[in-house]
Specification:
By secondary structure, this protein is of the alpha/beta class. Bound molecules: iron/sulfur cluster.
């Protein structure tokens, strides 16, 4: 049986600030040991703040949110008390030129990461290939595991090899590999080849399996640039020109092609991907609190079954919320669709019975013959939707060549 111990890279809830600062820590402390054992690491964002040419500047974070200092204290407590590695995420897509080339600023930058290293940080996402290549970070933090960012788009085996020689220890694979199992297999072969040459320094792979962006979204790069400044405000205005258009379309939003996430409904498909990648990364840093700060003590981290398949946590309901402590139970019992299980929480005052009582069997699209056929196709369709349309035909919706055909008619300035 495929092991799911330490297999999931999960997001810290970076927006749980102020009165919620201890919430993530409390949920994790309340979690069952079987939940904890499935977690590979917890990643969190933080900006690098500095002064340049008399200006206060910051960089590091295309999502535009960062963990507070209080939250980071709690993250270190999680690492010490629960033994889960925490991982600083510096994944800006545009590293400012002065951070790379100004010797003094780069020194400050390396020392900023070094400060966390001295506290015990041993995992860090580093989007600056140039800074990593200088070797200064490695000298300052010799035992750090350097992760590439998914935004560096490692989509084939040669790129994987290049990124490993660049100095990355965990290589984030492009989302497109959720639909290209053949290339994922080639990357595994490259990884085995490389690791057999360097048995003491194993390079790992991590696949982003849940994020809900379209394949190679043409807005992605700009979104990440403006997101660094406006954060989640992006979705309140300017996203009406981009993803609010297709995410708001009822018919299109339910199709697998509306987000390049892993579709592995059945355990046999899920295991196939698990055999080819070391870590499944699940997005979630923008998660918002939906409970009162006074109730934090009742919350418990669990595997949460998202009925609507939208990757969102909802309020715990008596007798309705479906959860599991142990990911192995989800696999052993083939609790379809496997891809609908996300790291979330329950309110222990209302949700007392786990999946054994509340999971009623699944008879949705992925249990039908046409759904099973699509699941198989999606493992290797390579996202050429204009020439395929199998998603629409399976779900009984109209053919669409591009998500870009779905737009909101809006006045951005007034929105
Ligand atoms: S429409 Fe075809 S190419 Fe596009 S995601 Fe669906 S199966 Fe893949």
């Amino acid at each position: 049986m495929v092991s799911y111990d330490k297999r999931f890279s999960i997001a810290h809830f970076d927006r749980f600030h102020g009165e919620y600062a201890s919430a993530f820590y409390t949920m994790m402390k309340n979690a069952d040991a079987s939940y904890i054992k499935s977690i590979h690491d917890i990643y969190f964002g933080k900006y690098f703040y500095y002064e340049y040419n008399g200006q206060q500047k910051r960089c590091g974070n295309p999502m535009g949110v960062e963990a507070s200092d209080d939250q980071i204290d709690y993250l270190f407590k999680i690492q010490e008390e629960l033994g889960i590695e925490i991982s600083l995420t510096f994944n800006t897509v545009e590293v400012p030129h002065e951070v790379i080339y100004d010797h003094e600023i780069r020194k400050q930058f390396v020392e900023w990461i070094g400060g966390y290293y001295d506290r015990g940080l041993r995992s860090c996402t580093m989007s600056s290939a140039h800074i990593l290549r200088t070797g200064e970070l490695q000298n300052r933090c010799p035992d750090m595991r350097w992760k590439s960012t998914v935004n560096q788009i490692v989509a084939d085996a040669q790129q994987f090899i290049d990124f490993a020689y660049l100095g990355y220890n965990t290589i984030l694979l492009d989302r497109s590999l959720n639909r290209n199992i053949k290339e994922l297999r080639r990357i595994r072969e490259a990884q085995n080849y490389l690791n057999s040459k360097n048995p003491n320094k194993k390079v790992l792979t991590s696949l982003l399996v849940a994020e809900s962006c379209i394949y190679n979204c043409p807005f992605k790069k700009e979104h990440d640039s403006v997101g660094e400044v406006i954060g989640t405000d992006y979705f309140k205005g300017i996203a009406n020109l981009s993803c609010n258009g297709w995410r708001g379309s009822k018919n299109f939003a339910k199709l697998p092609r509306s987000g390049i996430d892993l579709v592995a409904s059945d355990v046999s498909t899920f295991n196939k991907f698990a055999e080819l990648t070391d870590i499944f990364k699940i997005s979630g840093r923008l998660t918002t609190p939906i409970f009162s700060p006074d109730d934090v003590k009742y919350m418990k981290s669990v595997w949460f079954y998202d009925n609507d398949e939208k990757f969102t946590q909802v309020v715990s309901k008596v007798g309705e919320t479906i959860y599991a402590d142990n990911f192995d139970d989800i696999i052993k019992n083939n609790l379809l669709p496997i891809h609908s299980w996300i790291p979330g929480w329950i309110d222990t005052r209302y949700t007392k019975e786990d999946f054994k009582t509340t999971y009623k069997g699944y008879n949705g699209i992925w249990s039908t013959d046409k759904g099973k056929r699509l699941e198989k196709l999606l493992t290797s369709c390579r996202n050429q939707c204009w020439d395929c349309h199998e998603c629409e035909r399976t779900f009984g919706t109209e053919d669409i060549d591009s998500a870009l055909q779905l737009r909101k008619v809006i006045n951005v300035a007034k929105d």
